[in-house]
Specification:
single chain, Rossmann fold, about 40% helix
């Protein structure tokens, strides 16, 4: 069909097709081929024989077809089987919508072949030849030529024609697509005599996987063909195939580079950009076209770091950059020199590296305000202040006794703020050795001290960059570390231990302590300037003994939380057990309550937790009162109810640190906590505590007098077991002998 494209719009229909049904009569074959010569062929008799054998083939006459090349004969047979026309002008053209769809599907092939076709036409210019690019179905995707209607425009009238074997019969492009091999079809070798005045050559084009994608062909006047033309087409088709393979490899490489999650920059020996991936362009705030530009146009290296002069491979080192728009950028980079000069760099923003580290180590807040339970007025006041703190990034100080839930408040503030998607880093200043506090907080450079990593390490402030740093037990921080902390809070800069360069960080600090910071300032153990810097937003979390109305709520919640893990039925607390819980002083606050509920739930038989299931220290707190029978409805739900209320969240009001001393022998009093200087809640319980101790002693003495020293009877009177009664005797220094003598 390659010949048909040129013939349809440029030459009259020969008398050969007008006068003879089979395309053979009305013209002397010798005369027809008298001027047609092919290199290596000196006479027209050979072509006359091809002409005659084709006529015999069309008429169905028996013949040996000795003059027909095998692949030409195979094509004739396929064309006849497909009922391709062997006379007249065959023409099939796609509609515009179908053509555009096929053009889009072959965009990569088309965009690769066009420049090569242009170069090929320029090398044979001026010429009447037509260069044609088709897809695997023979659809004309693109044509080039100086005449014959091909033109150099995208709107060439030949686009959209279909030149497959089953439509046009034997042509170079149809045969090439059918057998996936380079070929040429000359003059009367065409299946349809309509194309006898033309010669054509075609070569297949393959993609990177070796799949056929189309053909590249050239059509010319029959006398213009030579084997050099055939070689040009084969070379051009191979060039398209190779270029497609290289472009695919380049696209694949660029895709991989963009998916690396880090900036990739290749510089030449003069520090000009050769390659910069999408991540790097975004990091350096530059436009798409950066090739050939100096790297200094985008960023300058700050400090003593030297990214470009190293002749060795560098892995995971750190550098500071200043972008052209003034933005400071901390990076982790690796570099490798190139054999031909220049260097290949990979860079990752330190903040992104730290964020990935934090995600792997689960350095994030998990609790929200919904997870904090409490209905007391003091708790509502603390929550209101915490909500205010979440609306900004100001430094916040949380005060409260151990176990009240200070970290829970800190996490809720973080998750309600605009930093919720950033790191939440926790450091307990009271558990880190004094010599390591500064390196933990601020990081250290390589070789800063014995045992330091060769590459240095970031501190908690760098890891928390963009997010929140929770400094628990800040009252225990050494004075030397307090100086550097004050500088970070004021300047937003961190200097690593052993380092000279400051690093910008954007960190929201939430501090917490159980200590009286005002008293610590007076004692000289806490800097007053740091105290004033921290004392911006202060949240006082009340102790549990100041919000006894929340004991019932928390106890039921903790019981609901643990019951599914025990495999038994626990419906709640009996009135006597709940009375004991509400009467106890809870020196360990919510943490102690949670631990006690878990322990008691494990030991209780159910379905109710009764007073006898509680540790003696708990129910002795209410021993001076008449509890009545430990029977009746459970607190919070009917007896026997198997329905558990839905959980409202995880640990409510408890710090996420180990409890110290589970059951302290303290009892409920009429204590009212005071807010001491510095904001801490402290209970003044000593006088009333002594009163309860005396009251308990008198009750034991009365029981012993009434029973004449009989331990079983006295223990039953008091309402405890014999073992517990003996323990109380030892605690109060009482002897049974004195009662028995009486």
């Amino acid at each position: 069909m390659s010949s048909s494209a040129s013939a349809r719009d440029s030459r009259p229909v020969e008398k050969l097709q007008e006068d003879c049904p089979d395309g053979c009569a009305g013209l002397d074959a010798t005369e027809f081929y008298s001027d047609f010569s092919v290199p290596g062929t000196s006479h027209s008799l050979f072509w006359k024989k091809i002409y005659d054998e084709r006529r015999q083939f069309h008429r169905g006459e028996p013949a040996q077809f000795t003059a027909i090349r095998p692949h030409i004969l195979r094509s004739w047979k396929r064309s006849r089987a497909a009922k391709a026309p062997y006379r007249g002008l065959p023409s099939v053209r796609l509609g515009s919508a179908d053509l555009e769809r096929i053009i889009d599907q072959n965009e990569f092939f088309l965009s690769t072949a066009k420049p090569i076709m242009e170069e090929l036409l320029d090398n044979i210019h001026p010429t009447s030849n037509c260069i044609i690019l088709t897809d695997t179905n023979g659809v004309y995707l693109h044509t080039l030529g100086d005449d014959m209607g091909a033109g150099r425009r995208a709107s060439s009238p030949l686009r959209g024609l279909v030149g497959s074997e089953n439509i046009e019969g034997t042509t170079a492009m149809g045969l090439c697509l059918a057998e996936k091999a380079s070929t040429c079809v000359l003059g009367c070798e065409h299946y349809n005599p309509y194309f006898d005045s033309w010669s054509c050559a075609a070569a297949p084009v393959f993609d990177f996987e070796g799949n056929l994608v189309g053909s590249l062909s050239m059509t010319m006047e029959r006398d213009s063909f030579n084997h050099h033309t055939f070689g040009l087409i084969i070379s051009a088709a191979k060039a398209v195939t190779e270029q497609m393979r290289l472009r695919h490899l380049l696209r694949e490489t660029r895709t991989i580079m963009d998916l690396l999650g880090e900036a990739v920059v290749v510089l030449d020996a003069a520090d000009r950009v050769r390659v910069m991936n999408h991540y790097a362009r975004r990091m350096f705030h530059c436009a798409e076209d950066v090739a050939g530009k100096p790297f200094a146009d985008f960023a300058d290296v700050v400090g003593e770091d030297d990214l470009f002069e190293s002749e060795q491979i560098v892995k995971d080192s750190e550098c500071s950059l200043r972008l052209a728009d003034g933005t400071a950028l901390q990076c982790v980079y690796s570099s490798s020199p190139l054999p031909e000069g220049g260097i290949c760099l990979t860079l990752r923003e330190s903040r992104r590296v730290h964020k990935l580290t934090n995600r792997i180590t689960r350095a994030k807040a998990v609790y929200n305000f919904n997870d904090i339970l409490g209905e007391s007025r003091s708790m509502h006041k603390a929550l209101k202040m915490a909500h205010k703190a979440s609306e900004n990034s100001m430094t916040t100080l949380i005060l409260g006794q151990s176990g009240v839930g200070k970290e829970l408040f800190a996490q809720a503030i973080h998750n309600a703020s605009d930093r919720r998607d950033q790191p939440f880093i926790v450091i307990n200043c009271g558990t880190i050795p004094r010599d390591l506090v500064q390196s933990e907080l601020f990081g250290y450079e390589a070789g800063a001290f014995t045992g330091a990593s060769r590459q240095g390490a970031p501190g908690k402030f760098e890891l928390a960059d963009g997010g929140t740093l929770f400094l628990d037990e800040i009252g225990d921080m050494p004075l030397v570390a307090q100086v550097n902390l004050l500088r970070v809070l004021q300047e937003g800069e961190v200097t690593r231990v052993g380092g000279k360069r400051s690093r910008q960080v954007n960190v929201r600090v939430i501090a917490a302590t159980h200590r009286n910071l005002t008293q610590a300032v007076q004692n000289g153990t806490f800097r007053n300037d740091l105290f004033y810097r921290l004392n911006v937003l202060v949240i006082n979390v009340p102790p549990l003994n100041y919000r006894r109305g929340d004991v019932r709520l928390l106890a039921n919640f903790f019981l609901q939380k643990i019951t599914p893990t025990l495999g038994k039925r626990l419906d709640g607390f009996s009135p006597g057990a709940m009375h004991c819980l509400e009467a106890y002083n809870w020196p360990g606050n919510v943490r102690e309550l949670e631990n006690l509920v878990e322990r008691t739930a494990v030991m209780a038989d159910g379905p109710l937790i009764r007073r006898d299931d509680l540790p003696s220290e708990i129910w002795m707190a209410s021993s001076g009162e008449n509890l009545g029978e430990d029977l009746g409805e459970p607190f919070g739900k009917p007896v026997g109810s198997a329905v558990h209320e839905p959980f409202c969240g995880p640990v409510c009001g408890a710090d996420l640190e180990p409890a110290a001393g589970l059951f302290a022998p303290q009892v409920e009093t009429a204590t009212q906590p005071d807010i001491q200087p510095g904001g801490l809640w402290e209970s003044r319980t000593e006088p009333l505590e002594e009163s309860n101790h005396s009251r308990e002693r008198r009750r034991i003495i009365r029981a012993l007098h009434a029973s004449s020293g009989n331990v079983s009877a006295a223990a039953k009177e008091v309402g405890v077991s014999r073992v517990t009664f003996y323990a109380h005797l030892r605690r109060h220094g009482l002897s049974l002998d004195s009662f028995r003598e009486e």
